[in-house]
Amino acid sequence: METNCIFCKIANGEIPAATIYEDEEFRAILDLGPASKGHALILPKQHAANLFELPDETAGKAMILAKKLAGQLKDGLQADGINLVQNNGEAAGQTVFHFHMHLIPRYSGDTVNVTWKPGTLTEQDKKDIMKIFK
Ligand code: 5GP
Ligand code: ZN
Question: I want to staple 18 with a disulfide (CB 3.0 to 4.6 A). Which of 30, 48, 63, 76 is the partner?
C-alpha cells in the first residue's frame, strides 16, 4: 500500500466507500462525482499508479470484472450503454494516481461527454506510428 494514496486506503477498507463488489484483489465503488447514475470505479487493492505499472494478470482480471459489473449496472439501471474509461497521466485526465477503471452507464439522450472531435490520419502520422510496431 502506498502512503498518501486515497484509492489504496479505499481499496483496502481504511476509508469507507459505497462498495458494489469486493474480492481479494479488487474493490469496486461508486464514484463520488458521478458522470451519470451508476458511475462506478474498479480499484485493484495493490497499488499501481497507472496502466503501465499494472501487472498483466491484474489487467486481465480487471477487464473480466469490468465486463461482469457493466452487465449488472446496465441491466439493473436499465442503461442503454456503458462507457469504460481509464485515464493514464495528467495529460489524459487522470487525477487520482492509483489505477482505476471507470464504468459509466449511459442513457439515451444524456449529456455525458466522453467524446472527441475526429481529426485526420495523415500519411506522415501513419508512417511515424506504423514504424513503432515493426
Ligand atoms: P480520474 O480523473 O483519475 O480518472 O478519476 C478519478 C475519479 O475518482 C473521479 O471520477 C472522482 O470523482 C473520483 N473520486 C475522487 N476521490 C474520490 C473518493 O474519495 N471517493 C470516491 N468514491 N470517488 C472519488
Ligand atoms: Zn494506491
Answer: 30
